[in-house]
Every structure is written in C-alpha cells, then in structure tokens.
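A favour, since you know our structure tokens better than I do. Could you add the entry underneath, on a fresh line?
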Amino acid sequence: MKLFSVLVMALAATAGLYVTSQRAPDSAAQEVTDAPDGHYSLYRVGGAERCLVERAGAAAQGRFRLVLEPGCGKLDKRFAQVRFGRDEGNGLLSFLSEDGTPVVEFAVADGIAYESVRPEAPIFQLLSRF
C-alpha cells in the first residue's frame, strides 16, 4: 500500500510539471510580445551585430507592420524582405514578406527572447528592449 501511495504521488508531481510546462509558452510569449515601446533587438546568435525592429501598428489579416532598420540586412539578407509580423497564437511569431510568405519564424525560447526555428540555421534571437 505504501508503494502504491508513493507511485500516486510521483504521478501527480509529474502531471503537475507537465501542466506547468504547457502553460509557460503562453505567459512567456506575452512577456516578449508586449515590449513597452514596441521596439525589439534582433541578434544573430554567435555574432556581435544587432538591429532594431519596431512594431509599427496594425495591418490586415491579423498581421502587424514591422519596420526593420536598414542594418538588418547585414545579419541576413532575408530580413530585407520583411514587412509584417504575425503572432501565430501558439508561441510562434512569423516575420512575413509583402505577399505574406514567412521569411523567418520564431518560437518562445526562455520567456525573455524568441529564437528562430525556421530557417534552422543561422539562429536569430528577438529580444524586447528594456
């Protein structure tokens, strides 16, 4: 009976960790997407360069306009195509071209930053500027 009680407690603790970890991306995404001034820093992991990204307002079809400073092309030439962003609602954030095609997709990394998941390399981080 004692063994059964220990197994039940272990199962409950594991389930609690699972439920807590399932909620983390939503709260972490909220922290990242709500930069106080709508400005973000974009970094290439392993590099010293950064560029600034500004969320400039609403656009059609659940998208919002993004303004990337001209130096973002130095991080990766794909950033020259970015015109919009879209919160996918599942912890993913997409940077979109003029025609709505995803250029770079980010996932919540640690509650402080997004980390690119597509393309797989190089890896980029998007941080709220504090």
Summary: Residues 73 and 79 are 5 Å apart (CA to CA). DSSP finds two helices and eight strands in the chain. Residues 2-33 form the longest helix (32 residues). The mean pLDDT is 76.
